[in-house]
Amino acid sequence: xxxxxxxxxSGLATLLLxxxxxxxxxxxxxxxxxxxxxxxxxxxxxFDTFGDETKWTDALRLHEVIRVAVDPTTALSVGxxxxxxxxxxxxxxxxxxxxxxxxxxxxTVALLKLNAVVGVKGxxxxxxxxxxxxRVGITCALCHSTVDNSFAPGIGKRLDGWPNRDxxxxxxxxxSPALSAAQKxxxxxxxxxxxxxxFNQDGISSPQVIPPAYGLEGIHRVTSTGDGExxxxxxxxVGVTQMGGHGTFFDARTGVxxxxxxxxxxxxxxxxxxxxxxxxxxxxxxxxxxxxxxAARGKSIFEGQGRxxxxxxxxxxxxxxxxxxxxxxxxxEPEPGGAPxxxxxxxxxxxRTAPLPGLWQHAPYFHNGSAATLxxxxxxxxxxxxxxxxxxQSADLVEYLKSL
Length: 404
Description:
Layout: H1 4-8, H2 35-47, H3 53-59, H4 62-69, H5 72-77, E1 82-83, H6 89-97, H7 105-113, E2 120-127, E3 130-138, H8 141-144, E4 145-147, E5 155-156, E6 158-160, H9 169-173, H10 181-188, E7 194-195, H11 199-202, E8 208-209, H12 231-242, E9 247-251, E10 256-260, H13 270-278, H14 292-303, H15 374-384, H16 391-403
Parallel strand pairs: 1-5
Antiparallel strand pairs: 2-3, 4-6, 7-8, 9-10
């Protein structure tokens, strides 16, 4: 039987890029990215498990649950997504006319065989004339991709880099027959769109929001606490300590020292994976989604009385490459439920300023999701920083943030 902490080490790659967004390209003297390397990284991001079937199959035995109890309706209810472009025409027709059952686990197995479940990789073998799921693992895309719902809710074209805030990682982990009722209760308490990427290291349960994996070009400190100087640092952390992929992660600052397997299935893939992630732009605000005149007024407030531009600087609206900030500077604490500061559990013990492009897309806000809307964000800053903004000024600032 797995311990609660060790079970979480099999957990999801939900914080592959903790708490960051941003979109505009910062000036750089680096050569342009290699298209072939980006294409390779795309395949890794979408389909590579780094051998984490060792955790998800051998330890957590989730393949046993999926093949007998997880039908597509159940899968969609916990936030799993289906890539419509991976579906053959006959399957599309069958879903539309009802001849393909969405309440049968056999359909889920068929979708896994087609590589159509975003971020979940299954091995399906024919046993006794029946397709049987024998192994299952996860990829980066599980938490950091969604779909555009163009076919049906939860079914559509992939949107890589977009955080899957419908995903309920804890509920998925809690399906494991290897866990006790008490262990399942902890994971089920996290809720959709949240995951704790340090729980299996320090035993503290304080879930954070699944962050975007887009708009990171030119930003070196990509996590909410600025751990590591590049994206590969966090990719290795998540790949090894959270996904359960084969390789090693060590950081003396946190005391984390994890090795899975005797082979390294991660290190050689980090450059391509990073290249693809850095190629993903933040999405533009949809036409008509904000009041342009109010946003223009809000920009002046952002740069003036609101004091936002003192930290949200440059084309990506962050000073993360220049400095980090002590917890006392942020308004997202204290943590919900009386948990200790998330920064105190990190390598830096500080926070970086979050980039803002694409901000409209990924509510709730702050590293812990404590602000449900952008209006809540402005309200928190106005109160905690004594900005003195009127209701009208606050509303204009919200419209500007929605435009980024």
